[in-house]
Amino acid sequence: MTEINSNVEQINNSAEIIYAFLSNLNNFKELMPEQIENWKSTEDTCSFRIKNMADLSLKLTQKIPYNLIVLSPEGKTPFTFELTCSLEQISDLKTNAVINFKADLNAMMLMLAKSPLQNFVNALAMRLKKKFDN
User: Fold this and answer.
1) pLDDT (tens digit, 9 = 90+) per residue, 25-80?
2) Are the C-beta atoms of 45 and 57 separated by less than 8 Å?
3) Count of other CB atoms within 10 angstroms of residue 10
4) In a 3-state reduction of DSSP, which class is residue 108?
5) Which tens digits make up the pLDDT trace of 71-94?
6) Residue 78 — φ and ψ, nearest 5°?
7) 36, 51 Cβ separation under 8 angstroms
């Protein structure tokens, strides 16, 4: 299993407020990079196209209040994966956030996808920080 972690982003807000935002997949559109098109979402699911690549559908599969959000693929995907956001409250208005991508990737797929996936999780974490630090 391959794991790709974002940079740890320290966010100037409580884990409770960040968790509430992440618990509604309608909000994820604000975190997505420019390469995302055809965004559709509900509170528990989202689907989108990564420009010039693939269509993806995700669903909320696990929530641990104020600590963890887990998204898993819905429907057919070329490989099994999971996208998680871990939150660690440091003080009343400071929370560390990390986005993690876990996948069953063969060596060839890992070689092709590692850098784009690393950029993707870092972009999500950075946009989450910007969302709450403004």
Assistant:
1) 999 999 998 888 999 999 999 999 887 777 889 999 999 999 999 999 998 877 78
2) yes
3) 12
4) helix
5) 999 988 777 899 999 999 999 999
6) -70, -20
7) yes
Q: What's the rounded mean pLDDT across residues 13-21? A: 97
Sign of CA dihedral 52, 83, 117, 21: positive
Enter the tokens of residue 43.
């509170």
Contact yes or no for 51/41 (Cβ under 8 A)? no
pLDDT given for residue 121 in this prediction: 94
Phi and psi of 29, rounded to 5°?
-55, -35
DSSP per residue, 8-74: PEEESS-HHHHHHHHTSGGGGGGG--TTEEEEEE-SSEEEEEETTS-EEEEEEEEEETTTEEEEEE-
Tokens of 131: 């969302």
Instruction: Name the amino acid, one letter, at 87.
Output: L
Q: What's 75's DSSP letter?
A: S
